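User: As part of a screening pipeline, I want to sanity-check one entry by hand. Below is the sequence and the SMILES for calcium ion. Please return the complex as structure tokens so I can compare it with the automated output.
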Amino acid sequence: MPNGKYYEDWVVGETYLTPRRTITQTDIISFAQLSGDFNPPHVDFEFCKTQPYGEIIAHDFALGDDHTFADAFDWDRDGDPDYILGNSAGDVWLYENVGTAARWDLAPGKRLMLTTDEPVHVGQPVDTPMTDFATHSGNRSDPAPGDYDGDGDHDLVVSDAYGTVTYFRNDGTNADPAFAAGVRLLSEPSRCVICAVDWDGDGLLDLLVSWSGHGSWFCRNVGTGDSPAFTKTRQFDLPWIPYPHPYAVDWNHDGDVDILFASSYSFLFFAERSFLDHGYAEGEVVGMDIRIAR
Ligand SMILES: [Ca+2]
Ligand SMILES: [Ca+2]
Ligand SMILES: [Ca+2]
Ligand SMILES: [Ca+2]
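Assistant: Here is the complex for your manual check:
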């Protein structure tokens, strides 16, 4: 152990500063082998000579672990789902599907950017020191794309691990998106994840939001068509689900939108719409049959 101490010498809460150490190309290659991320900027020296940075660069997880949230969304409206990804750093990446719906082939990802040429980003700044569990876990952006202002291009709502839901209006196009600065929509003091759907069928995209420890909510879009605004409208009365992530889908094909909840420990939960709207029916004893064992 550092500082000449043995394991049993340490007390809970004690801290120490480790010696500084230079991250070398060996570390980058080692991380590629550990993570399986062998993209050329991290491992291909010849490719990197043709790039502005000239040498291999570290993987893009400077903040947090490798937690990601992904959605299939037809961004370019060509009939196949593309892949949109939020990562622990708090950024949002788009991967165009250049294959088909049945056989995906993803083009290299591009980080979605603001009109100011800064990345779309939620949570803490990227250079935030990892001082506690929350900062170590990262920002965990969860993007919910959709046309929230009804002008025909895809905007973004993005949640983060600090409980905030942020709106980014697309001031570019779908082919060349560029987003306005983020506007805070909703906030609770625990990590959250989101899904976009017109839950009440009024033509405006609503949000389903799960806050850890604060339940899963229908957050209705109470704004106008070109200026979305959301309010926590109703909490779903659900059995306990560990860290649920809502996905809106008509899972049982009966014409109304249900929710699939992905959750920790690899569990997947199905919540049917009539149950979500009406909950459990009140129980009533309708009869009793007494039998005596002989
Ligand atoms: Ca597509
Ligand atoms: Ca739009
Ligand atoms: Ca709606
Ligand atoms: Ca249904």
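Points to compare against the pipeline: Residues 250, 252, 254, 256, 258, 273 surround calcium ion (ligand 4) (CB under 6 Å). The first helix runs from residue 25 to 35.
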